[in-house]
Amino acid sequence: MSTTATSSAMDFDELTEVAGRVRRAIETVIEGKPDVVEVAVTVLLAEGHLLIEDVPGVGKTMLAKALARSIDCTVRRIQFTPDLLPSDITGVSVFNQEVRDFEFKPGAVFANIVVGDEINRASPKTQAALLESMEERQVTVDTTTYQLEAPFMVIATQNPIEMEGTYPLPEAQRDRFMARLSMGYPEPAAELRMLDGHAAAEPLEALQPVTDGQQILRLVKTVHSVHVSESVKEYAVALVGATRRSQELRLGASPRATLHLIRAARAAAALDAREFVLPDDIQELAVPVLAHRVLPAAEAHLGGRGAADIISGLVASVPLPRNRRD
Fold this sequence. Notes:
alpha/beta; two-stranded parallel sheet; ChlI/MoxR_AAA_lid
């Protein structure tokens, strides 16, 4: 075996081992949701941002905090409220009397992991303060641009838009989240275990970091090395393109969605210790990566079909790529 192949195998071994530690750490806090935890770790390694949407009390913030605490890096939490200002997020220039000049005071976004709790309770203007940082990993204040330190991930939670006192996230904001998760209610057995585990102590307080930011950056480089064949790329393009032609959708997915789908598929393949992406990876990630970016047509709403149902239908209808050597 060549030195390069041996090194690659060691990289993938490290990735699966570290990712397993992160998963197990999160699952000490989040009971009975292995699929949700798997997608969260996938988004982390794909350098994406995660939106967790569901009704209050099902563990959205707990999942975000558990993922953040499992990594030894800088973490900031932002409680989004109607009176939160954009400068609270990005930072502000203040006049320093001693040096008689303006001095930049970094905002809450200057951290490796930013937990935005109930993001849709803030005004659209404040929500938009995250746009530049999520897309370009930088913040511009008073014509000066400040780079954010890698790794950088935004994990935001939100209540459904039907809940009172919320502002729906605009399409441009939702499109910057690589994936959206819904926690769902736990199974009775998991809820019983939660009652036992959370009764005497808070498991989140006992959670210790199992990796650090520098190791996560190494794992991200390993994800970059995962091969995506031309046929798989064409399949991803065809699937996303189908959302733009569907009669059930009045807004299809963007080209950014295709890019995020491929990045997430690379991470999923790496987590499975594979050096190449399969069409199965694309199919499994289609709903969490695409559903929050599309808008169902009125007829679909009347028929009781949501975005996830429509995306699942497109996955079933778009032909799989033929086997071929790329």
